[in-house]
Amino acid sequence: MMYILGVSGTETVKVFWKDFTTTPATEYTVVYVKNQADGNYTLISDAVVALKENDEIWIQNAGTSSTVTYIATLELRPAETIQFHG
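^ that's the sequence the OP posted. Answer follows.
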């Protein structure tokens, strides 16, 4: 689950995953929100990304028309195939 909150400005938001298992890193668009307005939020509840070591999630303006501040939250869970040893 991820919330994207537009704190200031109005802009189109792009959230993407940078997969560093490839060289160069491959970018996959996870979410694209058109005209995220100041004070509005978008809830993404079904976007699932299986991150591996060194992978990154990025959020950026798709355009350059304004300066926008975002607050984004992510729910992280370990993969079921990972074993933890105490």
